[in-house]
Write a structure and sequence with these properties.
Largest sheet: none
Distance between the termini: 93 Å
Strand content: under 5%
Radius of gyration: 25 Å
Shape: globular
Helix content: 40-55%
């Protein structure tokens, strides 16, 4: 028989049921279902100054990418194209207009001028009239004629698969080059358009406004292999939910990770009315969307 040491047995700790409930700041239903942390959203709601270590920001950024991959598993370039030349032309035309307007314009353009050699020889007035619906048609016509002639004369009528060669073409900058590289050649790149720049600043990944500096800042956060799909997901989110003037915060599936939560409509029902394209039950921008695209295709040429 063991001897007693004269001490009273230690009192048992109360179980979890006896603990007082933990009060958490509210999160939108979509974010709560995904089990995301409410600390970032809570800071935004309370208007507290945003402080975060670089490591914490990187972890949050990568989590946002993972969340967006679940929200938009079908993310893709929203320009219709069948080859690198068509994608290059469509991307040049997409400046200062919607992808839908470009997709409604390019069928007739490519039917008339299917190759760089054909387009390089196009009468300027005729080309301008074909691309007039995309806006800035005179400047875009000059770019298309110039890049087509360069492809014909310098690259044997083929679109090059290198960044330096692409940006040497008239009217082709880094954004256009990375669209072509990532989606026609499988070369990773970040497409820093207005949507991408706006969202990464809202998410506090960077404060830079220059596209090249934004590209460098975001490239340092993610592995190179993620760059192309990250671009698609961010742009999809910017077009569908996180709008420029009135983001649909109350319907945003990553609201709990967003330090800018509350800039837009937070009421879930009101926010749902702001959703666009397939998220709002509306057609997308492509006339010929990928097979896994969940929404209806866009209206054809001649439809406004």
């Amino acid at each position: 028989m063991a001897k007693s040491n004269g001490r009273e047995p230690a009192a048992k700790k109360p179980d979890d049921a006896a603990k007082p409930p933990v009060v958490r700041e509210p999160a939108p239903p979509a974010a709560a279902k995904r089990g995301a942390s409410t600390s970032v959203q809570g800071a935004a709601l309370a208007g507290r100054p945003w402080r975060e270590s670089h490591l914490a920001m990187v972890r949050r950024a990568r989590r946002i990418n993972r969340e967006l991959a679940e929200v938009y598993p079908y993310a893709h370039p929203e320009l219709d194209f069948e080859n690198p030349f068509q994608l290059l032309v469509a991307t040049v035309l997409s400046a200062q207009t919607t992808d839908l307007r470009v997709n409604q314009t390019t069928p007739a353009l490519f039917a008339r001028y299917p190759t760089p050699e054909d387009l390089a020889a196009a009468p300027p007035e005729e080309l301008e009239e074909l691309i007039r619906p995309t806006g800035f048609f005179r400047a875009k016509a000059r770019s298309l004629l110039g890049l087509s002639a360069a492809l014909r004369d310098r690259f044997d009528g083929e679109v090059p698969g290198k960044l330096d060669d692409l940006v040497s073409l008239p009217g082709v900058g880094r954004k256009t080059a990375f669209v072509v590289l990532g989606n026609a050649f499988g070369v990773p790149g970040l497409t820093v358009d207005t949507h991408f720049g706006r969202l990464v600043r809202r998410w506090k990944w960077t404060e830079e406004t220059d596209p090249v500096k934004v590209e460098a800042a975001v490239a340092a956060i993610f592995p190179k292999k993620d760059w192309t799909m990250l671009s698609h997901r961010v742009i999809f989110h910017g077009r569908r939910i996180c709008h420029s003037r009135k983001p649909a915060c109350g319907a945003c599936p990553i609201a709990a990770l967003c330090p800018s939560y509350g800039e837009g409509e937070t009421d879930p029902e009101k926010a749902k009315k702001l959703l666009k394209y397939e998220k709002g039950g509306l057609p997308g921008q492509r006339l010929k969307p990928p097979p896994d695209y969940p929404g209806p295709s866009a209206p054809g040429p001649g439809t406004r």
